[in-house]
Amino acid sequence: MNTRNLYWAGACAHCHQGRLIFQNDMTHRRLYVHCEECEWGWLHPSDVGDAEKGFLTLLQNFDTGDPTLEEIQQSEWRNYLTGSLRL
Questions:
Q1: CA dist., res. 32 & res. 24, Å (int)
Q2: 54: which residues sit within 8 A by CB, 6+ positions away?
Q3: Which residues, 6+ apart, have CB-to-CB distance to 2 below 8 Å?
Q4: Which of these, 5, 7, 33, 51, has the minimum number of CB atoms within 10 Å of its CB?
Q5: What is the CA radius of gyration of the chain?
């Protein structure tokens, strides 16, 4: 069984319930965060607190994966990492 490491960047500004999980958009080669509860996402750290600047990730067509801690630390998201979970 494979172990997954998930990292998050605080709480969702859209639903105020879920954590913003880091995801790797492998199609466009970029990191973004998406809410584990409502599936709302943000592409840029400066937009995370504004629900109007987010998007419904389920309506997007791109492949995703879990980024490594190193990928997050080397991105514009590095200062937004607030927690992690091993599954």
A1: 7
A2: 13, 14, 40, 41, 42, 47
A3: none
A4: 5
A5: 12
